[in-house]
């Protein structure tokens, strides 16, 4: 006879302890990441504040007026010529830089900027023209001024082709392609074109007269600045290439309001170009 053994067990779950959650902060990593983000933001702000707006044009730097009457500083070969008179006016004449021989095609240039480099001469109405622009260093130029000299009557030649351009300017288009009153020169080109009536806030102390002259290589022209029909400055400029760009500048004192005129004449007094304008006073 077999025996039957019955075994009974009681299974109960043992209580389990709930896991504890702990957080550990890596403060060093947080500090490094924050520093990198902050430096990146500062770099972006600094770059934006110091970016250059290419549309803005800065006039050329003005020069200090001298206390000595008729003091003259002349530097040849693309340097500036400063003449100070008793009224504190300063005239600056730019001499040509040495140019290389280039060949280029023609395009119209009446009162439009020349798109070539300063060493190039663009010739209108001619194709495949080669200009030899190698220039010997010019001799020192003497600029003359007269405070009380009256107006000299200069007229265009009888066969001149007189053309009105650039807001009140007149040119003999046979010899001059551009005559522009401007507030500055950049890369031997005017940065703007001034109108006939100017406020004193339209410029900073100095005005520039830019001219582009054709077919007068080896000759000398003069820029004559008149204020109220009195000759204030006479600046000779030597032409050294077939298509030549040059300019002169004149300091304008706050008291020198009223009518002004700039003339471009030959050594014989033949008028090549002129520009009349008026500087308005506060009363105007």
TrEMBL record:
Region annotation (Disordered) ranges: 80-119
Limits of the DUF2914 domain: 219-279
Record-annotated membrane-spanning stretches: 30-49
Compositionally biased residues, Polar residues: 87-110
Keywords associated with the record: Membrane, Transmembrane, Transmembrane helix
InterPro entries, alphabetized: DUF2914
Pfam families: DUF2914
Highest taxon in the source lineage: Bacteria
Presence of keyword Transmembrane: yes
Leader sequence residues: none
Designated name of the protein: DUF2914 domain-containing protein
